[in-house]
Design a protein that fits this description.
alpha/beta; five-stranded mixed β-sheet; Conserved hypothetical protein from pyrococcus furiosus pfu- 392566-001, ParB domain; 52% helix
Length: 297
């Protein structure tokens, strides 16, 4: 009988508690600076505390599991193990890697498959984009029943895979609400069937009314009210709560999506600014606008 060894933290993070790399696959050491990460991928990097724990494990036990990389256009691209690469970078040591020759579709499958098997705490957005990437990869390889292939790989139902993939139609702001639990997953699926304009309206409404919890049945009802407006949403939720129709109130605040502001011709870096700095910038712009308008009169 084989004895079971207690895995190192690095093995646990890598999802390889048992077994080892095939002896047929050559492991080479590469400087972290030569390894290029794929930024446009479904999976988030480890937070600083978890990355520090991983670095400590590699310092004490060595890198137990090599990264999987692909050489393309003269560059080594990480398909699996960017957290291990970052941990080695923190330690100032080279990264153990296996170089795979593969097509773009095969690379996408390696990237998603290793993370889906290795990570046990994935957000709905990570699963959604990973399944969508796998579906596209299977289809590019000529697989007709791509969703069924994904479902078989992970012991899921085809319906459940389809639901997750539908979440990718949500704007990032609503998908973040699904990740945080403000919107139940199935509510997000229902909202994903709406138009982009209606989804934006719902996001702005929920931002202004954080106490509202939408059920699946309510989400289905909202689809019948398209096109959505703030007035329709007020009336809908007041009726569901058994409250009388609200009288029109004086507007005291509004919400504007950042991508609307970014579409204007200015050099302000919204992605690097805090909420207070953005508010101050918008107020300054409005002050300049009204001052210019008054001067023209």
């Amino acid at each position: 009988m084989k004895t079971q060894q207690i895995p190192t933290l690095e093995q646990a993070f890598a999802g390889t508690l048992f077994g080892s790399v095939s002896t047929e696959e050559q492991i080479i050491e590469i400087d972290p600076s030569e390894l290029q990460e794929i930024t446009d991928q479904p999976f988030r990097v480890y937070k600083s505390d978890k990355l520090s724990d991983l670095a400590d494990s590699i310092r004490e036990n060595g890198q137990q599991q090599p990264c999987i990389v692909r050489k393309k256009d003269g560059k080594y691209i990480i398909l699996s193990g960017r957290n291990r690469k970052r941990a080695c970078e923190m330690l100032g040591c080279k990264v153990k890697c296996i170089v795979k020759e593969c097509s773009d579709a095969e690379a996408d499958l390696i990237l998603t498959d290793t993370n889906l098997y290795q990570r046990h705490e994935l957000l709905p957005s990570e699963l959604a984009h990973a399944y969508a990437m796998q579906k596209a990869a299977y289809e590019s390889k000529g697989e007709r029943k791509s969703t069924a292939a994904i479902a078989d790989s992970y012991g899921e139902t085809v319906k459940n895979i389809q639901r997750y993939i539908k979440l990718t139609k949500l704007p990032k702001e609503l998908l973040d609400m699904v990740d945080s639990g403000q919107l139940p997953l199935m509510v997000g699926v229902e909202i994903s069937n709406m138009t982009e304009s209606d989804m934006d309206t719902i996001f702005l409404y929920l931002s202004d009314n954080p106490g509202i919890n939408i059920s699946v049945e309510q989400a289905k009802g909202l689809r019948n009210l398209a096109p959505l407006t703030e007035e329709k949403l007020n009336q809908f939720f007041d009726q569901k709560r058994g409250k009388p129709k609200k009288e029109k109130k004086f507007v005291t605040s509004i919400s504007v999506k950042i991508n609307y502001l970014e579409g204007m011709d200015n050099n302000f870096r919204y992605e690097d600014a805090s909420k207070g700095e953005i508010q101050e910038h918008v107020l300054d712009c409005l002050a300049d606008y009204f001052k210019h308008k008054e001067a023209l009169q």
